[in-house]
Amino acid sequence: MAKNIKNDAITSRDDDFAQWYTDVCRKAELMDYSSVKGFIIYRPYGYAMWEQIQQFMDRRFKETGHENVYMPMLIPESLLQKEKDHVEGFAPECAVVTRGGQNELEDPLIVRPTSETLFSEHYAKIVKSYRDLPKKYNQWCSVVRWEKTTRPFLRGSEFLWQEGHTVHATEEEARAETLQMRDVYVETCKDLLAIPLITGRKTEREKFAGAEETYTIEALMHDGKVLQSGTSHYFGQGFAKAFGIQFLDKDNKQKYIYQTSWGASTRLLGAIIMVHGDDNGLVLPPRVAPTQVVIVPIQQQKPGVLDQANKICESLKAKGIRVKVDDSDKSPGWKFSEAEMRGIPVRIEVGPRDLEKGVCVVAKRNDGVKDTMTIDEALPEKIIALMDQIHNEMYAKAEAHLKAHITESTNFDEFGKILDTVGGYIKTPWCGDDACEVKVKEAYQATSRCYEPNEAKEDDVCPCCGKKAKHIIYYARAY
Amino acid sequence: MAKNIKNDAITSRDDDFAQWYTDVCRKAELMDYSSVKGFIIYRPYGYAMWEQIQQFMDRRFKETGHENVYMPMLIPESLLQKEKDHVEGFAPECAVVTRGGQNELEDPLIVRPTSETLFSEHYAKIVKSYRDLPKKYNQWCSVVRWEKTTRPFLRGSEFLWQEGHTVHATEEEARAETLQMRDVYVETCKDLLAIPLITGRKTEREKFAGAEETYTIEALMHDGKVLQSGTSHYFGQGFAKAFGIQFLDKDNKQKYIYQTSWGASTRLLGAIIMVHGDDNGLVLPPRVAPTQVVIVPIQQQKPGVLDQANKICESLKAKGIRVKVDDSDKSPGWKFSEAEMRGIPVRIEVGPRDLEKGVCVVAKRNDGVKDTMTIDEALPEKIIALMDQIHNEMYAKAEAHLKAHITESTNFDEFGKILDTVGGYIKTPWCGDDACEVKVKEAYQATSRCYEPNEAKEDDVCPCCGKKAKHIIYYARAY
């Protein structure tokens, strides 16, 4: 029977990582393709994961003093053009509404690729005095960016995200906000998704269109490639001046505000899959798992088995655990592999023999380890502790993988070999010149992921040009 | 001082209801206009009300077995055309994307006005067997319908809503779903928003494009006009046949599914404003109020006053009450009118003299009644009970207003006078002919809101044509 457990085998992760990824997305029923190229359907299981991420982040946003708003989905082309760098960055990937109510529009409307311009226009209207500051708004929505090649969750013509937009009276406060929100993303990845990160600043080449500084969180996938998973931008007064966002300060002078924005998206779903998944499918960190525990009754037709399963279910549910009993008419083996494909962190098995002994078997999805537990009032707390343990084990494993894939090198010629064999990051000194970044990109198809400003040592040399280095930079091949 | 309490007076509700409405929307900071005509900005206070509605409804959707998903924002024009009635209903008000990534699109894309077609296409793909049924999905999103004349929350080119879409093996189950979701809307209005309703079926003329039957909830506004506030549709097999949504039933036969959809939107914010608001601004039912209690310290510079206010605040917060202290440097009178404009249900005042006595003054926004309460550990429970009382008072008041505005009439000639003087609904027998609806509409600018099928009495006559009546119908002037 073991042979026939899986209804549809998925490609092995090490044989073809890209195909494995797509297989998991489909077979775990996270998404489906729609009839519009590049636009996906978020199926219930995938969307439920996003809801968990939303809840966690939304709570942290509100705790840090942010309020949710909703801006129009369409932006006049003329408004998008107000900030020069910004429009240059986004114009090539816009979807444009040219017809409304059967009439041609005079000023075509862009489906929002991001909403800096709308927030700036609104802030210019409602901010008058230092008393109105700071304004710290966030928006949950979908955005459209026309992409040529797309992959589920990683790159799509439409994706779901949050975009925070804040304005402040001082540069210091805006800079602190930028870093604070980067830290909220780090916390989300660590505490909710069990994903360790590299963070730092983006180079001029890689930063957001219109930003003065972009901070990024970068996550290492199992295949050694890197995924940019969230960004936080400090805008200085660029948009403020383009849109006239001014306030009367305490000293009775008109001043421009300082601005930030920050966003994280359904890309995080891709990160969860590619950091933790294995050859049997998804492996979900317990806190983001829509179903944390599945109870599989063995020989469920035998008296008492299903009752026991339901009893355990109720006791766990009462403690806030997201749990369900799989009492479908499939075989236990089939149920096991479905639960594995969906990455459910904990599986509890209960059968006729367990009934007599008052025990159940508890299996961990992340490493397959099984244990027998007594069914008593302490069980829910034990399962909660077990889920924390699983979270920590998954984080530790991902962290070890990350550490094993940061190679320090000062020899430009060996970059290619490192990327081809070890993969992951090359950590190296950098002079700060764009030309050196381009050289790495052209020679090895690796991009700068982020850098730590002024962290180079006294005698560090940029391996690309041989000049004195200023910064430490991370190169990697990326999604 | 009383004279100067308001920073900006609003138009009196009885002088000019339309202007009063707009004033409240703006002055309570629920929304702002954007630079795209017909597209509004949902400001933090307005959006927070919507979040309360979302939480309530989302919980009820999940309790009744629904799952959230997310479908693409853009629909191919060719897909929208698959169901004939549906496309005829929506084509005139579509926003169309004709350019993507700087190229002209071969098949233009419609910004979703509603998503029946996308759900139908998806269901056709994933439903194979009776084991896959029912599928009960819901989506929270924004939709675009190009409107010529727009009003905040009531009619806009973009609005926020939820759309539920379900498919079932039997007609009976689908019909039960349609009614169940109508009931969830009724419950939302009654238990969350303190709004009583008239519900019933829409006539052929007024039903949703593509539906076999539409059930509606209709709310009566203070000015005697009616607002359609949510609809639930039974589709039969119309979309199933157009999209080929079939399943293999237990009897081994291929059958078409039965389908429903149901939606409620940010129109509900308009209903809250127009049912409960008064000349001092919003009046919010406590359960939907983003801030349920505001504590205003009197002479807050006096020792102990602010401490006491904060202490009360913490004790209420600990019981889950949404409360804040207004410790800004404005005068108490100013704070009172701000809280009134925003409709905060309960205001607590605490000043130096109250300190000595260990009491506070508690004022109700809905009727201005004040009471003195002892500050002790029982205070939070008393405030919770008071909020329930306020909810019930507001519902009772709205219900009395509704009952006083249903006029039974069997004389076509007096319809106009009733609508001009009493307003509200005319309840009357109806033969079932479209021509009679049109006659009422043309003579009195009133539309049929809903009808109760086969509820006419034996000798009831349709007042429009004099023929035998079948149904009871409600006519009203509507938003």
Automatic annotation (TrEMBL), chains A, B:
Subunit structure: Homodimer.
CDD domains for the chain: ProRS_anticodon_zinc, ProRS_core_arch_euk
Keywords, alphabetical: Aminoacyl-tRNA synthetase, ATP-binding, Cytoplasm, Ligase, Nucleotide-binding, Protein biosynthesis
Subcellular location: Cytoplasm
Enzyme Commission code(s) on record: 6.1.1.15
Similarity comment: family membership: Belongs to the class-II aminoacyl-tRNA synthetase family. ProS type 3 subfamily.
Listed name of the protein: Proline--tRNA ligase
Matching Pfam families: HGTP_anticodon, ProRS-C_1, tRNA-synt_2b
GO MF annotation terms: ATP binding; catalytic activity, acting on a protein; proline-tRNA ligase activity; transferase activity
Record remark on domains: Consists of three domains: the N-terminal catalytic domain, the anticodon-binding domain and the C-terminal extension.
